[in-house]
Design a protein that fits this description.
The complex is a heterodimer of chains A (254) and B (138). Chain A contains ten helices and no strands. Chain A is mainly alpha-helical. Chain B has 138 residues and is mostly helical. A three-stranded antiparallel beta sheet of chain B has the order 1-3-2. The chains are: A mainly alpha (254), B mainly alpha (138).
Chain lengths: 254, 138
C-alpha cells in the first residue's frame, strides 16, 4: 500500500494541517490559503520521498510531526509578522486588537480576584462559626454569598467572547461592594482584620480610612469593568464588523 | 530566535540561495521540499516546516527570491498538490556573492589572528589575552 494512503501519514498530515489552519486563522484568505497549500504540497512530497527511500509509515509520521513541532516558534513568529504587515482578515488595527486582548486579560484577572475574595470571606465566616469566634452569622454573609455567585457567573460570561461585555458589566456591582463588606466581616472574624481596621481608624477625623480605601478600590474596579463592558458593547461591534464576531472592539469607539 | 547581524544573511538563508541556485540551474526553479531534502542534516533530519517556509517568505519579501504557483494542470496531471516554485533573483545572486565574500574575509581575518598568536607563542611571548593576564598577576 502506498505510504500516502496509510493511516499513519493521514493522521500526521491532518495534525500538521490542523495546526496550520490554527496559526493562519484571522489572516486574509489569500495568505492563509497559500500557506496551507504550500504545507500540503510539502507533506505530499515528503510522503512520496519517504516511500521511494523505503521509510516506514511509522517513522514518516514521527518525522512529519517532529518537523512541525520544531517549526512552531517560526510559525508563530511568521503569523505575528503577517499580522504586523496588515494581513489580518479583520481590518481592525493591531493596536486595537492588543488593547482588546489586554482588557480581556485584566477583566478576567479582576473577576478571579473578586470571586477568590468572596470565597475567602465565606470560608473565614464558616471557620469563625465552627471555632465559635463569632456567636451568630454576620449580617453581611448573605450579601457576600450572592455577590460571589454573581461574580462567578460573570467570570464565566467574561471568559467567552460573545458574552464578555455582559460578564464585565455584571462584575461591576460585586467589585464595588465586596471590598467594603469584606472589611466589615474581617473586622468581626479575623484578629488581623480587627487590628488593621482599629489601627487605621486612629488616623484623622472624617470617614474611616479603611472605608475610604475599600470603597475607592471597589469603585475604581467597578468603573474599570463598566468601561470594559462599553468597549465590548455589542451594538458598536455589529455596526462595523457585521455578523462575524471577533470578540474585540470595533472602530466605532476608538 | 536568532538575531541577524546588520547586512548579513542567516546561515539558512545563504544555504537556500546556494542550494536554490544549483537546483534552478537544472530545474529552472525549486520548491520547498526539494530544498528541505538538500538541506537535510547529517542525521537526515529535514528543516522544520515553520523554519523553512518562514525563511522563504522573508526572502521573497526581501526580493532575494521570487515565488509563483505551479500550473495546476501539471500538478493535477501528476496527481499531487500544486507546488510553490521559487527562483533566486538577480538581487539574490548579488547578496549571495557578497555574503560569501564577507565570510571568506572573516575566515581570513580569523586565520591572521590565529597565525599572529602562534607566531607570538613561537617567539616565546604569550598570546595577547595571556599576556594581559600575566601582567594583571604581576
Amino acid at each position: 500500500m502506498s505510504v500516502i494512503r496509510t493511516a499513519q501519514y493521514r493522521s500526521a498530515s491532518r495534525r500538521v494541517l490542523d495546526w496550520c489552519a490554527w496559526y493562519t486563522r484571522d489572516l486574509v484568505p489569500e495568505v492563509a490559503g497559500e500557506r496551507r497549500d504550500e504545507i500540503a504540497s510539502d507533506l505530499h512530497d515528503h510522503a512520496v520521498w519517504a516511500e521511494e527511500a523505503g521509510i516506514a509509515p511509522t517513522r514518516l509520521r514521527r518525522d512529519i510531526v517532529l518537523r512541525a513541532i520544531r517549526g512552531i516558534p517560526h510559525d508563530l513568529s511568521w503569523r505575528a509578522g503577517q499580522l504586523r504587515a496588515g494581513f489580518a482578515a479583520d481590518p481592525m488595527p493591531l493596536g486595537t486588537r492588543r488593547v482588546g486582548t489586554t482588557l480581556a486579560a485584566l477583566v478576567i484577572f479582576g473577576g478571579v480576584l473578586v470571586v477568590a475574595f468572596g470565597i475567602f470571606l465565606l470560608v473565614r465566616i464558616a471557620r469563625a462559626l465552627v471555632i465559635a469566634d463569632v456567636e451568630a452569622v454576620p449580617d453581611e454573609t448573605v450579601m457576600i454569598g450572592v455577590l460571589t455567585v454573581i461574580s462567578l457567573a460573570a467570570l464565566i460570561l467574561a471568559s467567552r467572547r460573545r458574552t464578555r461585555w455582559i460578564g464585565a458589566l455584571l462584575l461591576a456591582p460585586p467589585s464595588a461592594m465586596i471590598g467594603v463588606l469584606g472589611v466589615q466581616v474581617l473586622y468581626q472574624v479575623s484578629a488581623t482584620g480587627t487590628f488593621l481596621v482599629s489601627t487605621l481608624s486612629n488616623y484623622g477625623p472624617g470617614p474611616e480610612p479603611w472605608w475610604i480605601a475599600a470603597a475607592s478600590a471597589g469603585g475604581g474596579a467597578a468603573v474599570g469593568f463598566v468601561g470594559a463592558a462599553i468597549w465590548w458593547w455589542p451594538s458598536s461591534r455589529r455596526s462595523v464588523l457585521g455578523a462575524g464576531d471577533t470578540g474585540a472592539r470595533s472602530s466605532a469607539t476608538t | 530566535m536568532a538575531r541577524r547581524r546588520p547586512g548579513t544573511l542567516f546561515p539558512l538563508e545563504l544555504d537556500i540561495l546556494d542550494v536554490g541556485t544549483v537546483l534552478q540551474s537544472t530545474e529552472d526553479s525549486f520548491y520547498g521540499f526539494a530544498l528541505a531534502k538538500q538541506l537535510a542534516g547529517r542525521d537526515g533530519s529535514l528543516t522544520a516546516h515553520g523554519t523553512l517556509y518562514k525563511a522563504l517568505s522573508r526572502m521573497t519579501t526581501a526580493g532575494l527570491i521570487e515565488a509563483s504557483w505551479e500550473d495546476p494542470a501539471i500538478a493535477e496531471g501528476e496527481g499531487r498538490p500544486r507546488r510553490r516554485l521559487y527562483r533566486v533573483t538577480g538581487e539574490g545572486e548579488v547578496v549571495r556573492g557578497r555574503e560569501h565574500a564577507r565570510l571568506r574575509e572573516e575566515e581570513r581575518a580569523a586565520g591572521r589572528a590565529t597565525g599572529a598568536a602562534w607566531s607570538r607563542l613561537a617567539a616565546g611571548g604569550p598570546a595577547p589575552a595571556a599576556a594581559r593576564a600575566w601582567e594583571a598577576i604581576a
